[in-house]
Amino acid sequence: MVDDDESVRMALSSSLRSASWNVIAYASANHLLDDTRRSKLKLVVADIQMPGMDGFALLESIKLWKRPIPVIFITAYATEAMLARAKTNGAAGFLSKPVDDARLLALVSELLTK
């Protein structure tokens, strides 16, 4: 879970944990990329608008990993253009804030049980 907004990060992490998923929360894309545990990640839920590296740059970095993993984008500024860019760049999902917990949990479950 990557989001610069602590309240969003904590709420979504809590929701994912309540569904028995292991969660590591990061305040920025750089925190995730600098974490030695990142090779154990199976999926990333990331905000698009963040200071420093945004969600699209994070997705590009993850696509270069030896074992790329799915990235679900969340954003408070959803537009058709942003959705199209997310799909074109290979995002596994796109949800607008406030995030519908049920939709997020269903998408995470679908992606991780394939």
From TrEMBL:
It comes from the Bacteria. SUPFAM superfamilies: CheY-like (SSF52172). This is Response regulator protein TodT. Keywords: Phosphoprotein. Signal peptide: none annotated. SMART domains: REC. The keyword Phosphoprotein applies. The modification 4-aspartylphosphate is found at D47. The lineage of its organism: Bacteria, Pseudomonadati, Pseudomonadota, Betaproteobacteria, Burkholderiales. InterPro entries: Bact_response_regulator, CheY-like_superfamily, Sig_transdc_resp-reg_receiver. Pfam families: Response_reg (PF00072). Residues 1-112 form the Response regulatory domain.
